Amino acid sequence: MEVERKRRERRNLIVLTGAAAVLAVAVNFAFTALNAHIKNRKKKVVPGSNVRINLSASEILRLADHIVAKSKEVHDTVASVPLDKVTYANTILPLVELEAQQFPLIQSCAFPKLVSASEDIRKASTEAERRIDAHVSGCSKREDVYRVIKAFTARGDWMSSEVKRFAQYLVQDFERNGLNLTSTKREELQRLRAQIDELSMRYIRNLNDDNAFLLFHDMELVVCLQNSSSKNISWSQGSTRKSVAVDYGRRCEVNLSVLEKLIQLRHKLARLLGYSNYAEYAIDRRMAKSSTKDLPILPNDINDWSENDLIVFEFLEKISGSLTESASKELSVLKEMKRKEEGEIPFGIEDLPYYVKKIKEQQFDLDFGVVKQYFPINLVLSGIFKICQDLFGLRFEEVVGAEVWHQDVQLFSVFDLSSGELMGYFYIDIYSREGKYGHTCVVSLQNGSWINSTRQIPVALLISQLQKEVDGRPGLLRFSEVVNLLHEFGHVVHHICNRAPFARFSGLRLDPDFVEIPSLLLEKWCYESSSLKLISGFHQDITKPIDDEMCKSLKRWWCSLKQEILYCLFDQIIHSTENVDMNGLFKHLHSKVMLGLPMLEGTNPASCFPRTAIGYEATCYSRIWSEVFAADIFAMKFRGDIFNQNAGIHFRNKVLAPGGAKDPLEILSDFLGREPSIQAFVDSKAHSV
């Protein structure tokens, strides 16, 4: 038992989920009850990191209670300041310190549910997060604190642009919780939020609980697997595809009424908070709000939309229109292939996945089973490290002997290559094991800050579930996993290089329209021959990297965005306009965006579109938005010279360092020397055809 206890205590953890990770609260926490136990631990100290590793279940719960108690104390102190005596030192500074100092402690409570093998610890972590979330939610509704912060902002006594931005964000957070409303309206707001949450979860439950199935005769399934030129067999194959597509597209029909009610409630909530519709509310604090230039003329039927709605709609319309020529060429190729295989049967939307896959296999001659042989995990990681170190002027150094939560976990320190300054740390926990979170992601363990001349360095964790070497067989990565790993490592670099003065603007707590841009930019290095050869090597002889032809094929691999744009437009319109006929709207958009291909009769796409029900409501556009700006940066600064360290360090200083302390569009414009453009993105898609 004692051995098992010590083994658990030698684990190391981390996490970033829930409101606890978003609104960290409290300051100057002392572990008086735990000091003796902590001193007895045998570990190598990690200078500058306040992340607590290998806490027991009881320690996690005690820590959570201390966090809540200390946070309440700080909020009470701020609330007690007379409104005519508010200053930066007695109102803003305590809350700034609060976030910086307690964020790593909150993460120390929350992370075990992602990585611990102990069910008791995972349960304690979940409970701790629940307690902290409840407290944070309560703090965001404290009218006494709101009045004090509001009084400070009214004075206009800004010490810096960062202080102004921080104070304004606090006020906006309070007002989004209705603290500027009457008590009656505030109660209505809470009722609306509860109803919205319930309907969102019902929509997802309906999808998860759907167990509809489709029956086929043996022959119908056999012909789907055959590659025959027989027109009869091909017709049957096409008929089967259509049957599957129709049946799949009409599941959960009850969700249509759920979504309609959900949209009505969202619009009502937005109006209560002073917005014209829910899309305006959702976009108000995003990068899209400030981007209004170089947009097309609008259709007359949406001229009554708000400015924010129009920005995103125009953006999507312009991207869709710019891709029409290349998409038409793609569709012509697919139609001709179907004509040769199936005769004069009209091409339908149900044929798209099948013939896209077929044309990829024929034109690019890529066997992804073979491609995988060139990406052993260790080689890929070392290549990614080299790319990031060389490009951004960094040096990574493993911290040998650091306390970790599993023997597979490694901790690295990050130094500025020129000055030798310690910039931060990152853990990598990438190998599969039971009880661990199942997806690749980056979590902030400690956000950077610079308060009263004291620097707090950032700490991040890269987590994944990859297969390690077993019995001499190397762990190999699919190409998609390589891209994903480099993408996530972009978040690590962004987190470490962030030099924002306040923790609220540090880490990955940035504008969602902006935070993905650096990682999507770094993905481009997966499609350039010289960088691909750095991260590849045949697993039996790693001196033999992936060849040039394979590189070219990977770079030209088709990825049509038209369907994604279709769903983004649908999401934007239903959240910008009330009383929309959803099926009618989808039919109209489908024919327009998908180059005349009609929506399949009998299907209900709105009933099985979870992104607009929860998580991405009115913001489905964000991924394309980020891709467009990443393409612009790559084309202007790195194309033709992907290892240009001057450009890389300039990007680090101008784009990564400010974090959320500056307006994202201002950051990009300053780096590019002009307004961002969609042209590079459009050109990149045209060249892949």
TrEMBL record:
CDD domains: M3A_TOP. Binds 1 zinc ion. The chain crosses the membrane at residues 12-34. It is found in: Cytoplasm. One of its GO terms (molecular function) is metalloendopeptidase activity. GO terms for cellular component: cytoplasm. Keywords: Cytoplasm, Hydrolase, Membrane, Metal-binding, Metalloprotease, Protease, Transmembrane, Transmembrane helix, Zinc. Its cofactor is Zn(2+). InterPro entries: MetalloPept_cat_dom_sf, Neurolysin/TOP_dom2, Neurolysin/TOP_N, Pept_M3A_M3B, Pept_M3A_M3B_dom. It comes from the Eukaryota. Residues 240-684 form the Peptidase M3A/M3B catalytic domain. Pfam families: Peptidase_M3. The keyword DNA repair does not apply. GO terms for biological process: peptide metabolic process; proteolysis. Belongs to the peptidase M3 family. This is Thimet oligopeptidase. It comes from Sesamum calycinum.
